[in-house]
Amino acid sequence: MKLMMIVYLAALLSACSMPTFVGDAPPIPVTSKTPDHFELPARFAFARVVYGATQAAGMRETALWTDLPNQAERLGSFSLLIGGNVHRWSATRANLIETARKQRFNYLLVVRMHPETGSADVALLHVGSGGVMATAQAVSPSGGRRGFWGGRIKNPSRLQRATLKIAQATAPVVEEMLRGAAERQH
């Protein structure tokens, strides 16, 4: 009986894996050369990085990012990049690209937020090659915020307020970047 419970538990745990959403997507070929044009419509992954790790956005910021696919509908589908611990995992460029490749996304839109300067670096990456297709920067007009003693903001609600201001400045920049991608399509 004990062995049967262990086998049952092992089968249950092996069935619980990270979602990949790859049912209808073709595999992404790995290439060494970044293309000079976009193949649209495509599958876009979105990764929001704060302090070097992916972090879930607050409710008001999520509303900004979920409105983005509605405005860029003809480009393809947009989804959040999911990997490892959904709330916080290492967001190195290689990790992000590898996760996007496993989930069969064509392009990866990375928004790296810097609360201390009130700015964001935006990069649109080709998942197959790992190369950069487009970059941009956005700066919040209200400036940056620091945590107590001048370090990182550790209070989640205070961090969400800081990143919301950055997201409000970044959203138009991302829209413009995606419009440029539509103009550069093959």
Could you describe the 3D structure shown?
With 186 residues, the protein is α/β, with parallel strands linked by helices. The chain has helices at 2-15, 59-71, 93-102, 156-183, and strands at 42-50, 53-54, 76-80, 107-114, 119-126, 132-139. Strands 1, 2, 3, 4, 5 and 6 form a six-stranded mixed sheet that branches. A hairpin with a 4-residue loop joins β4 (107-114) and β5 (119-126). The radius of gyration is 18 Å and the shape is globular. The chain starts with a helix and ends with a helix. The relative contact order is 0.19.
What's this entry about, in short?
This protein is α/β, with parallel strands linked by helices and 186 residues long.
The major pleated sheet works out as:
6 strands, mixed
Assembly type: single chain
End-to-end C-alpha gap: 61 Å
SSE ordering: HEEHEHEEEH
Unreliable spans: 9-20
Number of helices: 4
What's the pLDDT, averaged over the residues?
Answer: 79
Strand content: 15-25%
Helix content: 25-40%
Principal-axes geometry comes out as: globular
Q: Got a strand count?
A: 6
Q: Structural class, from secondary structure content?
A: alpha/beta
The rounded Rg comes to 18 Å
